[in-house]
Amino acid sequence: MKIVAIIGSAFGSKSRVAVNYTINKIKEVREDAEVDVIDFSEIQFPFADGREYLQHEGEVGVALKKIMEADGLIIGTPIFQASMPGTLKNLFDMLPVNAFRNKMAGMIVTAGSEKHFLIPEQQIRPVLSYMKANLVPNYVFITDQDIIRQEIKNPDIEFRLDRFVDDFFLLLDTYQTMLQQKEAEYDF
């Protein structure tokens, strides 16, 4: 099972801390999960220019192919200026419209205050839905007070991230089973 965790900004550390916690939890509970991380602080994506994703080379081409081959996506992102970072939107623009078909996707979102709680619901979820993702209904929303000095300080956040991993795999396993049953109906 291939999972890609996307850290949707080159700046800041809170999303990275939350995603890394989640990856460690996945490794703890799912030995069959192969997790790749796409971290915008490590890969410089060019501006989307209309090329098909297969035309990109190097580490960008590898990252885009990993996303396309994944069974599930975990998108960790901060909220900047009441919106998703441009780097994350740019990544979405580099992929085909049906890039997330048959993939489970979940969100882990960090923000400076609770005022941004609905941004994932109003801005990120519609893009993921448009790209045909099957979405984990609940996302994990984390504020600045919850992560201090690269550590999660709020035990409720750890609980919600643990629950997120459980829900993510429950839904992913169920969806994959349903797909296999549907495919088995075809006798060719």
Automatic annotation (TrEMBL):
Pfam families: FMN_red
Top-level taxon: Bacteria
GO molecular function, one term: oxidoreductase activity
InterPro entries: Flavoprotein-like_sf, FMN_Rdtase-like_dom, NAD(P)H-dep_FMN_reductase
Every NADPH-dependent FMN reductase-like domain range: 1-144
Keywords annotated in UniProt: Flavoprotein, FMN, Oxidoreductase
Gene3D superfamilies per the UniProt record, alphabetical: 3.40.50.360
Protein name in UniProt: NADPH-dependent FMN reductase-like domain-containing protein
Species whose genome carries this gene: Enterococcus caccae ATCC BAA-1240
